[in-house]
Design a protein that fits this description.
Blueprint lengths: L10 H16 L3 H4 L2 H23 L1 H27 L5 H16 L9 H17 L1 H9 L3 H27 L5 H25 L3 H26 L21
Helix pairs in contact: 1-3, 1-10, 3-9, 4-5, 4-8, 5-7, 6-7, 6-8, 9-10
């Protein structure tokens, strides 16, 4: 049976996966299948995740973070697009300046806008520091006439970090179960449920257990494929990343 790669799932994807599993199980007579306790355990924690997810979505600061993250991503990609174009410029001085800046930018990574919140903030801050303090890069920014672009990226990144810290304070003032911990509980409940189903399928005579095993496998395969396509498309964002998951390098609120 294919295993869902939960570490790559956004919170919304993780939540919906658990709901889909419960729907498959609830379509059967769980008492006859001897899965009532395992189903109930997963249902309870899934409801908790749903509540926490809705609370996260309702945070005004969370929405601000999404907008500010988009703003800085646009500024970053605008700068990079300009540098890539100028690296082919007929003016040798402009071409050289663009290549120096692009080399510095690429040293920090090739998919910076897709990194987790803290990593992107730190990298942009370090890159801008290079461009504002290293003589050859300061000159290159001026030659490429990117001062306004750099100022916009710096402003957006600082504004994002300020609101991010505000959300940290908000969460500290209103402590609640974290997504990380509750996902761990849900994952354990899911594993317990599927282990029981597989055990009954192997040792028992009710063919419904094997049908559920097959359905779980198909469901996991479909989710893994969908998440894989999202991650490979270059459109992955962190608009769904809760505070306690932004350190993982995955994107999700």
């Amino acid at each position: 049976m294919e295993v869902p790669v939960f570490s790559r799932y956004r919170n919304s994807e993780f939540l919906q996966y658990m709901k889909d599993v419960l729907e498959l199980v609830n379509a059967q007579d769980v008492d006859v299948l001897q899965l009532t306790a395992q189903r109930d355990a997963l249902a309870t924690v899934t409801n908790q995740i749903d509540d926490l997810f809705q609370q996260e979505k309702s945070s005004g600061i969370t929405q601000e973070l999404i907008e500010l993250d988009t703003r800085r991503d646009k500024a970053f990609m605008g700068i990079k697009a300009n540098l890539e174009a100028y690296s082919y410029h007929y003016d040798a001085q402009l071409q050289s300046a663009a290549k120096r800046l692009l080399f510095n930018l690429n040293n920090y990574g090739t998919n910076i806008p897709r990194m987790n919140y803290q990593a992107e903030t730190a990298i942009i801050d370090s890159m801008i520091s290079d461009w504002e303090t290293e003589t050859d890069l300061v000159s290159a920014v001026s030659t490429a006439e990117l001062n306004d672009w750099v100022a916009e990226l710096k402003t957006a990144n600082q504004a994002f970090n300020q609101r991010y810290l505000a959300r940290v304070s908000e969460s500290a003032a209103n402590p609640a179960t974290s997504f990380t911990s509750i996902r761990e509980v849900a994952t354990d409940a899911y594993k317990s449920l599927t282990a029981h189903v597989q055990a009954h399928a192997t040792l028992g005579s009710n063919t419904t257990h094997q049908e559920l095993v097959n359905e779980f496998g198909i469901l996991a395969k479909q989710y893994n494929q969908t998440v894989g396509l999202r991650l490979n498309s270059g459109t992955d964002t962190e608009e769904e990343a809760p505070l306690d998951e932004e350190t993982t390098g995955t994107s999700d609120v």
